[in-house]
């Protein structure tokens, strides 16, 4: 089971059909290379407020939140 910190951070790659639906009507869709560069990178979603809430609840100084986030991201890639 994932720890609370891991649940606040997830990595995913959006599928090709999902992205054009979101951006097809935007100016960027008309630019050269738009379709070529889709889905070239993973996306990391972070729930920063969750890390802050956990730190506050666990009486951890907020200055340590960046380390908590870095640890959660590292765990995802191990």
Question: What would you note in describing this structure?
Answer:
There is one protein chain. The protein is 46% helix and 10% strand. With 78 residues, the chain is mainly alpha-helical. The longest helix has 12 residues, at 65-76. The radius of gyration is 17 Å and the shape is elongated.
Could you give the distance between the termini? 15 Å
Across the major sheet, the strand order is 1-2
Figure out the total of helices. Answer: 5
Count of β-strands: 2
Q: List low-pLDDT spans.
A: none
Offer a few descriptive terms.
78 residues, mainly alpha, two-stranded antiparallel ribbon, 10% strand
The gist of it:
By secondary structure, the chain is mainly alpha-helical.
Helix-strand blueprint:
Layout lengths: L3 H4 L1 E4 L5 H6 L10 H4 L5 E4 L1 H10 L7 H12 L2
Antiparallel strand pairs: 1-2
